[in-house]
Design a protein that fits this description.
Layout (H helix, E strand, L loop, with lengths): L1 H25 L2 H27 L3 E6 L11 E2 L3 E3 L4 E6 L8 E2 L27 E5 L4 E6 L7 E6 L1
Parallel strand pairs: 1-4, 3-8
Antiparallel strand pairs: 1-2, 4-6, 5-7, 7-8
Helix pairs in contact: 1-2
The protein binds copper (II) ion (CU).
């Protein structure tokens, strides 16, 4: 973002300098108009580029809320989580208890087949502050739950 912004400022600086020199050389109103137009279009390009940087951030943040084990469809926040194809959802365990982020629904044969933070290993959300992430490459609705507290449910909607 900072890099993008400073590069953008440098672009404006170069354009303004170039155009000021042009105005001094020729000193005709048409060049003033042209340089103003050039600056305005650069501002427009810069603004739209910055907006797209915000919109297409590659990660979407979500949390497991405090006291989640006593909750149902509010245990994961936000719910649903909305993402676009190619984005990665990052769940952070903000609760003191151990939870999982497991695709599908409790008892279903395909539970955990698409993604699963699991009960052991580096992705297990054993304690507060632990994170689990999954990249969504296909549009669709992905229900998920916690294997330790099957009442905890959420959905990821990928568009
Ligand atoms: Cu849980």
């Amino acid at each position: 973002m900072i890099l993008n912004s400073s590069r953008f400022n440098l672009m404006i600086f170069i354009t303004v300098n170039f155009n000021l020199r042009l105005i001094k050389m020729v000193n005709k109103p048409i060049y003033l108009a042209a340089s103003l137009l050039a600056i305005l279009s650069l501002v427009a390009i810069g603004a739209s580029a910055n907006i797209s940087v915000f919109a297409q951030s590659d990660k979407v943040q979500a949390t497991i809320v405090p006291g989640a084990s006593t909750l149902t469809d509010t245990s994961y926040s936000p719910n649903p989580i909305e993402a676009t194809v190619g984005q990665t959802v990052v769940w952070t365990n903000d609760d003191s208890a151990f939870h999982t982020v497991t695709s599908g629904s409790a008892g279903a044969p395909d539970a955990g087949k698409t993604f699963d933070s699991g009960l052991a290993g580096p992705t297990a959300l054993t304690s507060k502050g632990k994170t689990f992430e999954h990249k969504f490459d296909t549009a669709g609705e992905y229900p998920y739950f916690c294997t330790l507290h099957p009442a905890m449910v959420g959905t990821v909607i990928v568009k």
